[in-house]
């Protein structure tokens, strides 16, 4: 089965066969990203946490059966040698530390290229998208990476499309996600598409996840300051995030980084192209945008959270910043779910 060939309900899933996923683990891979992905499959595959491989199956595949050490020191043994990649519905590459040279061997790269040739969808989890990009397998596809790794991806692969504003992305024959808890969200999407919503719900309930986030959800903690190199600008914008209710005056903000207000304004105009006040407003609006997409909080509550006295003032500022009202943004995010 390929993405788009969705099964309808549990009965159809049982008759059509199991969702089959192969995992390729890089050296110093991120354990949490792998564990959350595979456990979502495990819990979706059976009822009441019985761990039976009824509706899904998975293997950790590798060029050898040698233990693979995660970045935290825990070791995982491959459960299968490389086999015909078309035996899997998806192959998931779990990356980890970017400082590791040759995170996978040449036999693994050859296997991934073989999977691509056979039209098996490839998914990069955490920094797994770096491995796919290095192998030349992300051309004409978007890569979704953590904001922590966005700059390095751009530097390594300047000709490839990358984004760090979303949790994950499924782009035709490729998928990618930022890692961490978003691994469970992406796995839940595959379960919903390939097995059923009931299976997805069962997995999320056992994992104590209220609701799976979608590819339209914004990465938490995506700091605006990451775009700027000046340490004083970064420090000031971190402080803005800490006082997202707007309670920090520009005068006090300047003092926190050892500058006068006039000096801070000159540096911001020079380094960011906007005043500290405008940057502060942008930080507050980005926080509001995130809350709107991820919660059902009343508009007035969100307005107060980001330092506005009333909802109408907040609505005007939000529309001026993003070109749509908060209600319109929430409705669009809801449709994406």
UniProtKB/TrEMBL annotation:
<keyword id="KW-0238">DNA-binding</keyword>
<dbReference type="InterPro" id="IPR029062">
    <property type="entry name" value="Class_I_gatase-like"/>
</dbReference>
<dbReference type="InterPro" id="IPR018060">
    <property type="entry name" value="HTH_AraC"/>
</dbReference>
<dbReference type="Pfam" id="PF12833">
    <property type="entry name" value="HTH_18"/>
</dbReference>
<feature type="domain" description="HTH araC/xylS-type">
    <location>
        <begin position="234"/>
        <end position="332"/>
    </location>
</feature>
<keyword id="KW-0805">Transcription regulation</keyword>
<dbReference type="InterPro" id="IPR018062">
    <property type="entry name" value="HTH_AraC-typ_CS"/>
</dbReference>
<dbReference type="InterPro" id="IPR020449">
    <property type="entry name" value="Tscrpt_reg_AraC-type_HTH"/>
</dbReference>
<dbReference type="InterPro" id="IPR002818">
    <property type="entry name" value="DJ-1/PfpI"/>
</dbReference>
<dbReference type="InterPro" id="IPR052158">
    <property type="entry name" value="INH-QAR"/>
</dbReference>
<protein>
    <submittedName>
        <fullName>GlxA family transcriptional regulator</fullName>
    </submittedName>
</protein>
<dbReference type="InterPro" id="IPR009057">
    <property type="entry name" value="Homeodomain-like_sf"/>
</dbReference>
<dbReference type="Pfam" id="PF01965">
    <property type="entry name" value="DJ-1_PfpI"/>
</dbReference>
<keyword id="KW-0804">Transcription</keyword>
